[in-house]
Specification:
mainly alpha
C-alpha cells in the first residue's frame, strides 16, 4: 500500500514514483518472457543440425516449464523469509545470464548439447518463476493498485512478451547470428534488471501466525488450483495443435498463421485490463463460471466437433475456427485473473493476514505453479489425442474438460452457501481509507454477485 502524503507535491511525487516502479517491473517481465519464446523460430532447426531429435527438442522446451512448476511452489512459500527485492534481482539476473549461456552452448553438439541446453533452460525457468512471484508480491504489497489490476497488468505484459518473443527472435537471428541473438536479449535484460534493482524498495518481513503452507488446507484454494490447471491445459493444447490443423485443413500460409496467432493473443490481452474492472465490482466466481459454461460450446464449434456432424455435414470453416478460438482465449483471462483475488480472499477469511507478503507470495506461487503444470500437460494431452484421431477430437475433449470444472466450482459454491461459510472478509473489516491509503482488499468491498 502507498505511504501517507503530507502535501499535494509529495503526493504527486509518490504517484509518479509508483508509476515508474510499475513501468520498470512490467518491462522486465516483458523482456524476461521474450527470452522464453524468442528462440522458437530458429532453435529447432539449429538443434536438429546438432543431432537432436524432435523428442530431444521437446525435452529442452519442457525443462523450462518443469522448473517453473517446481520453483513457483518453493518461492511462493519462501518469499516472506527474505526481502522480495532480492528474489526479483536474483531471478532477473539468473534469466539474463542463462540467456547468454544458451547462446554459448552452440559450440557443443550431441548428448552434451542436449544436457547443457536442458540445464540452462531449467535454470532460466527457475529464475523466471522467482521474478514473477517476487514482482507480483511486491506490487501487491507496496502499491495502491487493486490486486486484480496488478495481476491483470503482469499477465498482460507477459502475454505481450510471449507473443512478441518469436517475432523478436526472428529479427535478431536475421540481422545477427545465433549466439549474438542470445547475447543481445540477455544483455538487455541484465541492464533492465540493474534498473529494477535501483527502483525496487526494501520491504520489512512479515510476522504471521499462519504458515503459508496451510494455504492448501483451504478447500477453495484447491478448487482454484484445479480450475487454473485445466485452464492452462486447454490453452496450451489449443496453441500446440492449431498451427498444423489450420495448415493442413485450410492450406493456411505461415504469414497468415502469424496473423491468426497474433489475433488470438490480442484477444487475451484485451481482457487483461477489462476483467479487473468487474473483479473490483465484486464479480469473481460469477465471471469464472460464466467463462467455463460459454467455453464448452465454443470449443465444440471450433473444429467443428465430429459430434456436430449432423449440423455441419463434414464442412469446416476457417473463420468459424479462428473466431471461436479467439473468444475462448479471451475467456481464458476471465478464468484466470479473478482466481488470484478469490484465493487472497479465501486466505484472509481462514486466518492469513490480509495485506501480507506471505499471503501474496503463497497465493501467487500456488496459482502460477498451476499455470506451469497446465503448460506441461497441455501439449502432451492435445498431441496424444490428435495422434490417435485428429485435432477436431482434441477440441471436443477440451470442451469436455469444461464440464468437471463447472461441476466442481458449482458444488463448492453451493456447499459454502449451505454451510454459511464466507468466501471473503466481511464488508467493513477489510476496507480502510486513510490519507489516500488503500487496503488491498478495497476492490472487494461489494458483495459477490
Amino acid at each position: 500500500m502507498g505511504n501517507c502524503m503530507d502535501s499535494p507535491t509529495s503526493g504527486l511525487r509518490a504517484v509518479w514514483k509508483e508509476r515508474l516502479l510499475m513501468v520498470v517491473v512490467l518491462t522486465v517481465q516483458f523482456v524476461s518472457r521474450c527470452t522464453d519464446t524468442f528462440l522458437y523460430p530458429f532453435f529447432p532447426q539449429e538443434a536438429t543440425a546438432k543431432g537432436l531429435t524432435p523428442t530431444h527438442i521437446g525435452i529442452v522446451f519442457s525443462s523450462f516449464e518443469l522448473s517453473r512448476f517446481l520453483t513457483f511452489f518453493t518461492i511462493g512459500y519462501l518469499i516472506s523469509k527474505a526481502n522480495p527485492k532480492h528474489w526479483c534481482v536474483v531471478g532477473g539476473g539468473l534469466v539474463s545470464v542463462c540467456c547468454v549461456l544458451f547462446g554459448l552452448v552452440d559450440s557443443t553438439s550431441g548428448t552434451l548439447y542436449l544436457v547443457l541446453c536442458s540445464l540452462t533452460r531449467f535454470l532460466a525457468g527457475s529464475g523466471a518463476a522467482m521474478l514473477t512471484v517476487a514482482s507480483i508480491t511486491l506490487l501487491l504489497k507496496i502499491t495502491s493498485y487493486s490486486s486484480s489490476f496488478v495481476i491483470g497488468a503482469v499477465e498482460g505484459m507477459q502475454g505481450v512478451g510471449y507473443m512478441a518473443g518469436p517475432a523478436l527472435g526472428s529479427a535478431l537471428y536475421t540481422i545477427s547470428n545465433y549466439t549474438s541473438a542470445f547475447w543481445i536479449l540477455g544483455g538487455s535484460l541484465f541492464l533492465l534488471n540493474l534498473a529494477q534493482a535501483l527502483v525496487l524498495p526494501s520491504v520489512e518481513q512479515d510476522v504471521n501466525k499462519q504458515s503459508s503452507i496451510n494455504l492448501f488446507n483451504i478447500p477453495g484454494v484447491l478448487v482454484l488450483f484445479f480450475q487454473v490447471t485445466i485452464y492452462k491445459t486447454i490453452v496450451e493444447a489449443t496453441y500446440s495443435g492449431a498451427s498444423n490443423y489450420l495448415s493442413f485443413t485450410f492450406q493456411t500460409s505461415p504469414s497468415t498463421l502469424g496473423i491468426v496467432f497474433s489475433v488470438w493473443s490480442a484477444g487475451y490481452l484485451v481482457g487483461c485490463p477489462l476483467i479487473p474492472l468487474l473483479v473490483n465490482k465484486g464479480f469473481i466466481y460469477s465471471q469464472i463460471l460464466i467463462a467455463w459454461v460459454v467455453a464448452a460450446p465454443l470449443y465444440m464449434l471450433a473444429g467443428p466437433s465430429p459430434l456436430l456432424e449432423f449440423l455441419f455435414n463434414g464442412q469446416k470453416y476457417f473463420l468459424l475456427t479462428v473466431i471461436t478460438i479467439t473468444i475462448s482465449i479471451f475467456l481464458a483471462g476471465v478464468q484466470l485473473i479473478p482466481s488470484f483475488q478469490a484465493a487472497i480472499n479465501l486466505a484472509a477469511v481462514n486466518g492469513h493476514e490480509k495485506d501480507s507478503m506471505q499471503t501474496y507470495g503463497a497465493v501467487t506461487g500456488t496459482l502460477n505453479s498451476a499455470i506451469a503444470l497446465g503448460s506441461l500437460i497441455g501439449p502432451v494431452f492435445g498431441g496424444a489425442i490428435t495422434q490417435m484421431s485428429d485435432f477436431t477430437w482434441t477440441l471436443t475433449s477440451l470442451a469436455g474438460l469444461s464440464l468437471p470444472v463447472v461441476t466442481v466450482i458449482s458444488v463448492y459454491l453451493l456447499s459454502m452457501k449451505l454451510l454459511k461459510l464466507p468466501l471473503k472478509p466481511i464488508v467493513g473489516e477489510d476496507v480502510k481509507i486513510e490519507n489516500g491509503e488503500k487496503e488491498k482488499l478495497l476492490s472487494e468491498s461489494t458483495d459477490e454477485e
